[in-house]
Design a protein that fits this description.
mainly alpha; two-stranded antiparallel sheet; 7 helices
Length: 207
């Protein structure tokens, strides 16, 4: 076995032995990371850099969270009937990260900025925005405020979809498991009767 394979196997065993390491702790870590990043975030206010920076902020931690959850849960190794449920739970931390950034609003507003300026705090509205240099930026400030509003609205929509999807998956999986258990209990007496009949026929064969 090669060194990378040994490292992957040892890491997987360590994570599986760690009690409670899963969706909830990893989500808490992402929330803490977002709070720390929000304190020091500064939009470059340069159209050519804004989209690139915000894209990496959205995708980088999301892909990392998905990779770690896939490595821990290993949904492809599960029963094909439970693959969708395990994969859905792997999507929870990345979705939470997306929700946090969207609900903050200022990240989307930064990515949509198409003018150059200085990243400042508006004391009246209490929002950070790219204030243009040398021009009246009232209309641009209103545009930034709208972008933040729609970003937060989309965050709530994402959270609603995530909650409904998780509830639907859990209810479907539980109801399906319960139905299978009831069918097995119903079939068990019939199987026992068939086995008893077969044993009687073996012990008392017809003349």
């Amino acid at each position: 076995m090669s060194l990378p394979e040994q490292f992957a196997n040892n890491l997987e065993k360590t994570l599986r032995k760690t009690s409670g390491f899963g969706t909830l702790p990893f989500t808490v870590i992402l929330i803490g990371l977002e709070l720390l990043m929000d304190r020091g975030f500064s939009c470059p206010c340069t159209p050519s850099l804004n989209v690139t920076l915000i894209s990496f902020i959205f995708l980088g931690p999301s892909l990392l969270a998905l990779t770690v959850m896939m490595f821990i849960r290993r949904p492809c190794r599960r029963n094909s009937k439970n693959f969708a449920v395990f994969f859905l739970f792997c999507l929870i931390p990345p979705s939470i990260w997306m929700f946090l950034l969207l609900f903050e609003g200022e990240y989307v507003a930064c990515g949509m900025v198409h003018w150059e300026g200085d990243y400042v705090l508006d004391e009246k509205l209490q929002i950070k925005w790219c204030k243009p240099n040398g021009v009246n930026g009232t209309n641009l400030l209103e545009l930034t405020e709208k972008l933040i509003f729609y970003s937060r609205l989309s965050a709530l929509a994402l959270l609603s979809v995530l909650c409904v999807s998780v509830m639907a998956a859990v209810i479907y999986n539980d109801c399906k498991s319960r139905t299978l258990e009831q069918l097995n209990k119903h079939d068990e007496p019939t199987r026992q009767t068939s086995l008893s009949s077969s044993e009687e026929e073996v012990q008392h064969p017809s003349a």
